[in-house]
Amino acid sequence: MLEQNVNIKKLRDDAKIPTYGTEHAAGCDLYACIDEPVTIKAGETVLIKTGLAMEVPVGYAGLIYARSGLATKKGLAPANKVGVVDADYRGEIMVALHNHSGEEKIVEPFERIAQFVIAPYLKAVFNEVSELNDTARGEGGFGSTGTK
């Protein structure tokens, strides 16, 4: 497991620094930094602030994923499925929570709202060609590798 110091800035004194639930957790929990409960209507998306900004290391991206418990129990998950925080972004980290359930849901102050994974990425240098190498799969798309 790799470890690296990551600079983080509280934009509000009461903002909560992300925490890891277990020793080997890949994602740390992001907390809602809100003054009062926020109601999210069925089918609605609301931007929830964390009160934090951070310096994601160059060559890495901060990826915002759903918390499985929040998604399965309340139907709340990031609207964009996976949020991306680039290494050069210095603004507040926010989570666009979407209510996938059929009823209003409430986000409480300092509730865990998403998980944050810092992952390396590859920046592609695209090389346009007229043909691609052949593979056994070829152009087989959705569902083409499953058993029948």
SSE order, as H and E? EEEEEEEHEEEEE
Separate helix tally: 1
Average predicted local confidence, pLDDT: 94
The profile of the biggest β sheet is: 5 strands, antiparallel
Explain what this protein looks like in three dimensions.
- This protein has 148 residues and is mainly beta.
- Helices cover 5% and strands 34% of the residues.
- It contains 1 helix and 12 strands; from the N terminus they run E-E-E-E-E-E-E-H-E-E-E-E-E.
- The chain has one helix spanning 68-74, and strands at 8-10, 19-20, 28-31, 38-40, 45-49, 52-54, 60-65, 76-78, 83-85, 94-99, 105-107, 112-120.
- A 5-stranded antiparallel β-sheet has the order 2-3-12-7-9, with no helix packed on it. Strands 5-10-8 form a 3-stranded antiparallel β-sheet. Strands 1-6 form a two-stranded antiparallel ribbon.
- The radius of gyration is 19 Å and the shape is globular.
- The protein starts with 7 loop residues before the first strand and ends in a 28-residue tail after the last strand.
- The relative contact order is 0.25.
How is this fold's topology laid out?
Layout: E1 8-10, E2 19-20, E3 28-31, E4 38-40, E5 45-49, E6 52-54, E7 60-65, H1 68-74, E8 76-78, E9 83-85, E10 94-99, E11 105-107, E12 112-120
Antiparallel strand pairs: 1-6, 2-3, 3-12, 4-11, 5-10, 7-9, 7-12, 8-10
